[in-house]
Amino acid sequence: MSDTSKTFFVTGGGTGGHIYPAIAIADELLKEGKVYYIGNPYNMEYVLTVEKDYKFLPVFVKGMPRKLSIRFLPWAAGLIFSTIKCFTYITRYKPDVVFATGGYISAPMLTACRIMKIPYVLHDCDARPGLVTRKFAAHAKAVTLAFEEARGFIKNNNIHITGNPIRKDFKTMTKEAAKSFLGLKNKLTLCITGGSQGAKSINNAVVDILRELSETLNIQIVFQTGKKNYDEVLKHLELVYPKYRKDLNLIVKPYFADMVTVMKAADIIISRAGSLSLSEISASGAAPILIPYPHAAQDHQRFNAKCYANNNACIYIEDNDLEANIILNTIKDLIKSPQKLKEIQQNCAAFANYNAIDEIKNIILN
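Now predict its structure.
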């Protein structure tokens, strides 16, 4: 039974890497007491949390401008206003502990916690922790990290390497069941994704080789193009592979709501290197071909991907080097070397911690 006298604040937003771990923990904390989620109502975190059983408390802070300009003044004003707003939330709802996943959305609440001496726990999902995590880590009661490599960036005496929270369906669904659910056969399957928004450079590199992957190599392909790139991909496919709609090896969609099934069905996954994506790729048991987004904040995707590459847990390709032939030859190499494919799959799977949610929850409660 929940101890309804306990009150928890959870904050994190802006990107999925901050939002999904925060929501996973908030859902668990709800079993222990009251939960309030602090985020920007104009961001994705509002859409994903508004129907939950916890209350949404708005702050209107935005990401800090990367260059000093006139935009810095309204940003600073927004940060100050949001911090004052967080003072009022703390005074009114009296949280026992605050859980934050970093990023600019967390900054006002963490600032208020420091001033009002409210205990907080931080989680960072990347191999190179973000600025907010690094700045506030020293005064956190505990810091949980997805990567061992992140430890060196953090000044705190209570650090736990937990991995990222992973949806429990990854543990219970088998690869065979996932393929069957998608109408696929039990044979080698490739998933291509640039995330929910897609990745144009990845799309451009793979479209020209889809026909050869299917007809020559007999690989099944599940291709998430991203909503904004879908029409462009189909137009390109019509030119290079007019019969693609009749190809039973090929599923092309702008977006899959159920990415657990898609990733579990895959034996090889071509992807960016966002931390949450990597955690779910690890849980899927697939071998990743990682192309880090070159303009990610603080270059964190490159750090994430190199961490996997250093552990022989992925094939690493720079975005600037991305070409159709490089992708094709990489896949051919994995097919010709089943032992290499298996080793990468196993090394990648070693990064998955299915107990991360419970571990982080217990750290917060204790």
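The domain at 7-163+354-365 is CATH 3.40.50.2000 (Rossmann fold).
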